[in-house]
Amino acid sequence: SNDPRANSVIAARVSGSFTGTTDEILQWVACKWGVDEDMVRAQAAIESWWRQDTKGDWTTDASRCAPGHGLGVDGQPGQCPESFGILQNRYPYEKSAWPGIDTSTSFNADTAYGIWRACFEGYEWWLNDVERGWDYAAGDAWGCMGRWFSGRWHTAAAEYYIGRVKEYYNTRIWEQSYFQEP
Description:
Layout: H1 4-10, H2 22-33, H3 37-48, E1 55-59, E2 80-84, E3 89-90, H4 100-103, H5 105-121, H6 141-150, H7 156-171
Antiparallel strand pairs: 1-2, 2-3
Helix pairs in contact: 2-3, 2-5, 3-7, 5-6, 6-7
């Protein structure tokens, strides 16, 4: 965020200081940041099927590769992942959180929901300076969910992502027999 409160109020609270099962970590982060725990569970299922070792958003741009994850290192010739972990935090935008977003489930989730909280508090007013479906304002939990995916406020891509998370939320996919917590 370009609002200084995101760093002074939110970022200072991100620690990843929790150990437990994957579900306990997701419950902890939901409680810490004041978000519905099933919303967190559903998003983690969409992003990684609750797997911290998930990598995504592959690129051929070496300048966007995380340390130790250069082009081709992770099994995709000529590509590197930009996103890491249970909530697919993107290294190019979260360099100060490296390597924790890759190595720690609790740090990955804590960072992701610290960002969500900054959005929810209204600290991401830059969202009104880019393409958007309507004007950004504080207090829109689902809007902040869509922003995570698209980097934009209620655009078609953001709405698509919100719909997918809501589907997992409504079906409680993490409770289905085919969903296995790692």
